[in-house]
Design a protein that fits this description.
Radius of gyration: 19 Å
Distance between the termini: 21 Å
Number of domains: 2
Number of helices: 7
Order of helices and strands: EHEEEHEEHEHEHEHH
CATH class of the largest domain: Alpha Beta
CATH superfamily of the largest domain: Glycogen Phosphorylase B
CATH topology of the largest domain: Rossmann fold
Low-confidence stretches: none
Largest sheet: 6 strands, parallel
CATH architecture of the largest domain: 3-Layer(aba) Sandwich
Mean pLDDT: 89
Shape: globular
Number of strands: 9
Strand order of the largest sheet: 6-5-4-7-8-9
């Protein structure tokens, strides 16, 4: 708590709820509160640079990247994979994360071959897996009260990875707009059509895939520019 009393300091909050629960004796100016998202409280400062690298062409076997996170609903994804399997398409799901909340024990034997589970890997290994993937699945559920905070006060780390590695996200449409995602740079779904959206992503050819990446890069660059300008404003005020 003492850290929040340091004069002429800025604080990056991943969870804005923390601000509302801190001691009333602590008073932070708006420009001292840096947030990853464009929320009604705080200043958006979004760092999503992971290095210079060449954009990878879409693979012959479509690779979806997803992070296993505690208290998330994976049932719609599992159901979608069960149906996609019947199409005899070439795809795989790379699952990483600190938590093995979503694991091989959650899925049936008939779809197990489409999954590759890798937990507690290093950041370097994580970045390699992401770079070699084609899409990143951002598993947020509008029907979950806990996920509702990702519209107002929190940003998923997977969103940062999408911006930084220019991996088009597969994301529920209810969460897309606040992060600059749309049908031009992402695949948007609702809980009833995830299967169809993933099939469309698999069928997407490399030309259209690169076009989607370029649109995503434009959105990420815009957020970078806004963040840089916001930093300058914060320094000017201090």
């Amino acid at each position: 708590m003492k850290l929040l009393n340091i004069k002429y300091s800025f604080y990056v909050f991943h969870h804005l709820e923390y601000i509302f629960n801190i001691s009333p004796k602590i008073h932070l100016n708006k420009n001292q509160i840096w947030t990853l998202g464009n929320f009604t409280y705080g200043i958006q400062i979004n760092p999503h640079y992971f290095g210079n690298f060449k954009l990878k062409r879409k693979g012959d076997i479509t690779r979806f990247f997803i992070t296993s996170t505690i208290e998330r609903n994976y049932k719609p994804l599992i159901s979608a994979i069960e149906k996609i399997k019947e199409e005899n398409l070439k795809f795989e799901i790379i699952v990483v994360g600190k938590w093995n909340y979503f694991s091989e024990y959650n899925i049936s034997k008939r779809i197990k071959k489409h999954f590759c589970f890798k937990y507690n890997i290093t950041y370097l290994e994580l970045y390699k897996e992401l770079y070699n993937s084609d899409y990143i699945i951002i598993n947020l559920d509008p029907e979950s009260k806990k996920d509702d905070s990702f519209k107002k006060s929190r940003v998923s780390g997977s969103i940062q990875l999408s911006y930084g590695f220019l991996k088009p996200p597969i994301i529920n449409k209810d969460f897309a707009k606040i992060y600059g995602f749309n049908s031009n740079n992402s695949f948007l779904y609702d809980n009833s059509n995830l299967e169809k959206v993933m099939i469309d992503a698999i069928y997407l050819n490399n030309y259209k895939y690169k076009k989607m990446q370029k649109k995503l890069k434009k959105a990420a660059s815009r957020i970078y520019s806004i963040s840089l300008e916001n930093i300058k404003k914060c320094f000017d005020k201090n």
